[in-house]
Amino acid sequence: MSVEIVSPTPPKQCLTEGMSTIPTNDSSTSDDEALFVCYPKCSTCAKARTWLNEHHVDFHERDIKTDNPNAQELTLWHKLSGLPIRRFFNTSGQSYRSLGMKDRLPSMSLEEAVELLSTDGMLVKRPILIQGRRVLVGFREEAWVEALL
């Protein structure tokens, strides 16, 4: 299986079964194929990529730094994941610390948090795997096994 790095392009709309439109910047991702949003230099993302390849999960890769998720994508992914918005923040990252997010995040509205995440891909927890109605944030092997296999 080959992996293709998707370069930034204007957002487009695609349909996924039983859902309204899902925004994506990847024009070649099919309904069965996952979108793997990652940072190429991240060791956790590398482990997740290896896991996906070993388990024959088809995916397209998107660099979170050069093609960060927009507010519409983040809003949808947050809703589909069922996770609190704080789980979408890269709490160990330099951007998170320099912005003082530990103190600011609890008082932010969902809209404010999503807007902030959409301004800097390095604020976003990674990797994110989107496949149909399933959104996985971060890489925990046992959660990925349960969700994907």
From TrEMBL:
<protein>
    <submittedName>
        <fullName>ArsC family protein</fullName>
    </submittedName>
</protein>
<dbReference type="InterPro" id="IPR036249">
    <property type="entry name" value="Thioredoxin-like_sf"/>
</dbReference>
<dbReference type="InterPro" id="IPR006660">
    <property type="entry name" value="Arsenate_reductase-like"/>
</dbReference>
<dbReference type="Pfam" id="PF03960">
    <property type="entry name" value="ArsC"/>
</dbReference>
<comment type="similarity">
    <text>Belongs to the ArsC family.</text>
</comment>
<dbReference type="InterPro" id="IPR006504">
    <property type="entry name" value="Tscrpt_reg_Spx/MgsR"/>
</dbReference>
